User: Which sequence fits this backbone?
């Protein structure tokens, strides 16, 4: 089946957040990412668009998925890749109705107005690497289902539960969850702290850190001690997140 004008229009529209929210769908680009989507979350796949060569070589899929042929010319117009692409898929955005999984895990992430798509994608990858199942995107955080975030997550977005709540809502509903705010220099050393079950690590905005409105909902602030004499002013938000997880989460 060849692609229709209506499908081309839908693909183009899903580049914008308002249409992703309207249709509750997002784009997954590239043969490797599309294949991982088909393996990791086959029931979330709406339709796969691919070149004739790609579709002919596509392995068997465990569920029924619509396969639509698209020309290289049309695909390159739609793709955010700088090099030639072979496939693009439309997937359903998972509906996470609560943050109950937070209480079942030792640690979850809360992103406080993270703006850089690459940072958020990397934070999702870090969550996946350390077995962190829940990531909560606070107000002001870039859309995790934007093409740049999805791509930089390298497939981790298919395995991490992403929800959208304010820190105030979470703490008012579940005051037993312990919140740790990552700050530059004034918090407890991450080497001298250990999060109990049901903890949330708050990662602040790249330039401004944790918003003042969220500080009152934080139980403890933590920092990564710097080595005296260096010239670095700060750490990248995603790098700091990875260092903290490397200290707090040990193989069992």
Assistant:
């Amino acid at each position: 089946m060849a692609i229709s004008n209506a499908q081309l229009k839908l693909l183009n529209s899903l580049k914008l957040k308002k249409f992703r929210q309207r249709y509750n769908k997002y784009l997954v680009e590239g043969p490797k990412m599309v294949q991982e989507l088909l393996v990791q979350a086959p029931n979330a796949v709406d339709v796969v668009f691919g070149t004739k060569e790609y579709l002919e070589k596509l392995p068997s899929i465990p569920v029924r998925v619509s396969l639509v042929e698209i020309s290289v010319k049309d695909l390159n117009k739609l793709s955010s890749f700088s090099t030639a692409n072979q496939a693009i898929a439309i997937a359903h955005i998972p509906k996470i109705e609560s943050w109950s999984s937070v209480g079942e895990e030792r640690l979850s992430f809360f992103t406080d107005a993270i703006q850089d798509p690459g940072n958020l994608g990397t934070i999702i990858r870090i969550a996946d690497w350390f077995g962190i199942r829940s990531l909560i995107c606070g107000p002001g955080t870039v859309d995790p289902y934007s093409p740049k975030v999805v791509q930089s997550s390298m497939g981790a977005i298919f395995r991490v539960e992403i929800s959208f709540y304010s820190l105030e809502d979470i703490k008012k509903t579940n005051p037993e969850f312990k919140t740790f705010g990552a700050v530059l220099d004034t918090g407890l050393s991450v080497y001298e702290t250990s999060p109990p079950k049901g903890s949330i690590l708050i990662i602040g905005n790249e330039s401004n850190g944790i918003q003042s409105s969220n500080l009152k909902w934080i139980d403890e602030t933590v920092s990564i001690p710097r080595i005296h004499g260096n010239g670095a002013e700060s750490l990248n938000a995603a790098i700091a997140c990875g260092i903290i997880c490397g200290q707090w989460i040990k193989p069992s």
The mean pLDDT is 91. The longest strand covers residues 45-50. The first helix runs from residue 5 to 13.
